[in-house]
Write a structure and sequence with these properties.
With 213 residues, the protein is of the alpha/beta class. 35% of the residues lie in helices and 20% in strands.
C-alpha cells in the first residue's frame, strides 16, 4: 500500500455499497477498499466483489464479510475509515454503527448525493421510500403509465438483487419472460420484474449503474 493511502471498509447490504465503490473509490489511488461488510442479504457474506467489477486496482476482487465482524475487521486490517452505505434502517441504527466504528478506531463517513449521482442524458424520475414494502414498485409502474400516455419512452431501473453471479449482473435488461430465463432470475426477482414486463415496460437492473445509464 502506498504511503498516505486511506484504508476503507464499506458498510453495506450488497447494493448501495457497490454503487458507492464504483462511483468514488474504484479508480481512486488515494484509497484502498479492504472489504465490504454485509447484512440484510442472506448468503452474501463470505463472497467477493469480483475483479471484473472492482477494476484493475483489485485483481483479486474485494472480500465481503459479515457486519458482525466489523470491530475485528477494523482492528486486524487497520481500517482508517468506514463508509456507511445502505438504507432501510433507523437513525439510531446508523449512529450505533458509527459508535462501533469510532470506538474500534476508525472514522465514520456517509457520502453526499453529489458524490454518488451519475450524469445521464435522459430525464430521471426517482421513486424512493424509507423502507422495504412501502410501494415503490407499484408507484413506479403507475408513474411509468402516466408518462407513456404523454408520449414518452419509459424504462425502469432497479437496484440489483445480488443472489447470483455479481459479474454477470453488471448490466441486465428485461423486456420479456425469455430474458428472465436467460438471466436465471430467482422467484423474488421474477415477482419484481414480471409486472413491469406485463405492463409493456422494459426494466434494467445491475451492479454497475454507470454501465446502465
Amino acid at each position: 500500500m502506498a504511503k498516505g493511502v486511506r484504508r476503507l471498509a464499506i458498510i453495506g447490504a450488497a447494493g448501495r455499497d457497490f454503487h458507492n465503490f464504483n462511483t468514488n473509490y474504484r479508480d481512486d489511488p488515494a484509497t484502498e477498499v479492504v472489504a465490504f461488510t454485509a447484512t440484510q442479504i442472506p448468503g452474501i457474506a463470505g463472497r467477493r466483489y469480483p475483479a471484473e467489477l472492482a477494476g484493475p486496482r483489485y485483481p483479486n476482487g474485494i472480500r465481503i464479510v459479515p457486519e458482525d465482524d466489523l470491530e475485528r475487521l477494523i482492528r486486524d486490517e487497520r481500517i482508517d475509515v468506514c463508509v456507511f452505505s445502505y438504507s432501510d434502517v433507523a437513525h439510531e441504527t446508523v449512529m450505533h454503527l458509527a459508535s462501533r466504528c469510532i470506538v474500534a478506531g476508525a472514522d465514520f463517513e456517509i457520502l453526499s448525493n453529489d458524490r454518488t449521482m451519475i450524469p445521464t442524458m435522459a430525464p430521471v424520475v426517482a421513486i424512493t421510500a424509507v423502507r422495504t414494502g412501502a410501494g415503490k414498485s407499484q408507484t413506479t409502474r403507475f408513474v411509468s403509465s402516466i408518462l407513456k400516455k404523454l408520449g414518452k419512452k419509459v424504462v425502469a431501473i432497479r437496484h440489483p438483487m445480488p443472489y447470483g453471479d455479481l459479474a454477470a449482473q453488471a448490466c441486465q435488461r428485461f423486456a420479456s419472460y425469455a430474458d428472465l430465463d436467460l438471466h436465471k432470475c430467482t422467484i423474488e426477482e421474477r415477482e419484481e420484474y414480471e409486472p413491469h414486463i406485463d405492463s409493456g415496460f422494459i426494466i434494467y437492473s445491475g451492479v454497475d449503474y454507470g454501465m446502465i445509464v
